[in-house]
Structures are given as structure tokens and as C-alpha cells.
Amino acid sequence: MSTESQAPIVIYQEADQAVEVRLDAERDTVWLTQRQMGEVFDTTPENVLMHLKNIYADKELEEPATAKDFLVVRTEGKRQVRRKLQHYNLDAIISVGYRVNSRCAVQFRQWATRVLREHLSQGWTLNRQRFEENARELEAAMAMVRKTAGSPALDATSGRGLVDIVTRYAQTFLLLQRYDEGLLTEPRAEAGGRLPTLEEARTALASLKAELIAKGEATDLFARERGDGLDSLLGNLDQTIFGEPAYPSVEAKAAHLLYFVVKNHPFADGNKRSAAYLFVDFLYRNDRLLNAYGEVVVNDVGLAALTLLIAESDPANKEIMVRLIMNMLASSEARVSGEAV
């Protein structure tokens, strides 16, 4: 075990005694040598070593997981010497502290936890700000490319097709990256959106069912309602709270319609296909099946992938999934502007 590291140094000071501590934010821990632990707990390095040996012998901790070599610069006489010294992480430090002086261990643990929390919080904030700035720049660039694609100078089919592929891929990648980072926010949305009545939904699904049965791709169980599940689902989407719509936009209604039909299983069979069909039907009824460029907002492959993603998603991630769908449906202008509802 021989590892060099450039972990930042922070200072732990208690009772007018300062000790340099290596901060390892990636592993949510800090590192001290035997000598430094002796200074923190007011004991000798030899006593610290004895406790560490007992801790590892008792299998309280595993040495490979809690000990690490760091390259340090030390002054020896008039020379500065680079040496590798073994350091121990917070778990080992606390274990030693309980055996030497629990009060000091509590004080150090409180300090270390506060430092780690501050460091991680500041780092996350900076990373988020930097990511969002990069995202806005990428979105603006994609908007410029799309605008250029409409120029007469690019009337060749191959040129337009290439630009379309590049911009579609870039936008999809951006949404997925935001999804992975948990940074998706609700886009600027179009207020309103008329949901189908129960009879309209049934009529649309009956048409789909007949077509699938004719192809041998479904049975009579397809889209057969389970109780009043579909009626309740549509009613919930159309409800109001204190006089205001619970789902006030086309994007919100569409996203929740797709999500709830997939997850709530209102049908005996074919819930995912029924959800996708009702989703497309809703967009068509509200003149949102095509975007401002005359393109289908979600093609067959994308819709199938999105429906499966919802089906496999953890219910705890419902809001993230809904925001992902809403962002996919939002107009390009809303995505570029970064404005929220």
C-alpha cells in the first residue's frame, strides 16, 4: 500500500494547539498520522499505535480500508525530505479516540463532520453552477445550428440531415446528463391542456386494440379496465386545488398521464402500450404532437424507450421522471431561455 496524494490540508485547532489534517472529500473522510492523533488526543504516538494494533486485531476495522500512505515534505535539520507516512482515516481516528479520551474524540468528530459538510456543499454548489452555465451555452449553440439549418445555403438533403442528427443527439445528451445529475427543473410550459373524457379515451384505446388484435399482437385482455382505475386517473389529472388546476400545463398533464398509466396499471394487460397511445393522443388533441420545426416531439423509438424507463424507475424518482418528460416536450425556445414556470 503505497499511494501518493495531493489531498488539501486543513487546520484543526483546539485548546491553542493546531494540527494539520488531510481532507479527502471524495471519500468523505479526513486523515491523520499516529503522531497527529497523539497531538489531538494528548497522548504518545506509541500509545496510538498500540490502540491501532488492537483495533485491527479485534477486527473492529480493516486496515487496508482505513490506512493509506501519503507523500509528505518534512524538514530534517536543514534539509527538506519527501517521505511516505502512513495516515489513518476518520473511522480509525474515532476508534482510537474512544479508547484514549472519548471527549476529545467527540470534539474532533464534530469538527471533522462540519469541515466535510462545508467542503462538499461548496464543491457541489460550484459544480452545479458551472454545469448550468455550460448547459446554457450548449443549448444556445444548438439553437444557432438549427437556425442556420434553415438557411438556403444548406438546402442539400444530406447537409440538413447531418445537422438534424447532430442537434437531436446533443439535445438528448444534455437532457440525459441533467437527468443523471439530478439537475432537471421544470421548463417554461404552455398553460392549459384538455384531457380526453373517459369515453374519448375508451374510444381511442378500442381503435388501438382492434388494430393490434388484427395483427395478432394483442388479446381481448388488452386495455380491459380494472375497476374504475382509468376514470379515477383522468379525474385526478383534471382536479383543482384551491380553485387552481393541480396540473396547470400541457406538459404537466402529458407527463403525468404517461407516468400514471404506466405505474398505476389501470388495465388488465397492455398498460405500457396504452399509456404511450394515450400520451400521443393527448398531444395530438392539444396540437402538440409536432414541435415548432414540424418534427414529431417524441418518435416511436424514443417513446418506447421513455415508457420502459418509467416502468423500470423507482417510484421515489417520480418527480425526476416527470421533469424529464416535461423537458422533452418543452419548446426549444423555453429550453434555451432556461426559464421555469
Q: Helical proportion?
A: 55-70%
Structural category: alpha+beta
Number of strands: 7
Low-confidence runs of at least 5 consecutive residues: 1-5, 332-341
* Structural Rg: 30 Å
Give the DSSP E fraction (strand runs of 2 or more residues).
Answer: 5-15%
Order of helices and strands: EEEHHHEEHHHHHEEHHHHH
Helix count equals: 13
Main sheet attributes: strand count, strand direction, barrel closure: 5 strands, antiparallel
Neighbour order of strands in the largest sheet = 1-2-3-5-4
- Broad shape: elongated
Compute the average pLDDT: 77
* Span of the ends, CA to CA: 53 Å
Organism: Halomonas rhizosphaerae
Protein name: RhuM family protein
InterPro entries: Fido, Fido-like_dom_sf, Type_II_TA_Toxin, Virulence_RhuM-like
Task: Give a nutshell description of this structure.
By secondary structure, this protein is α+β, with helices and mostly antiparallel strands. It has helices at residues 34-41, 45-57, 63-66, 90-100, 102-149, 157-181, 198-214, 229-237, 250-264, 271-285, 300-312, 318-329, 332-337, and strands at residues 9-14, 17-24, 29-32, 67-76, 79-89, 240-241, 244-245. Residues 171-327 form the Fido domain.
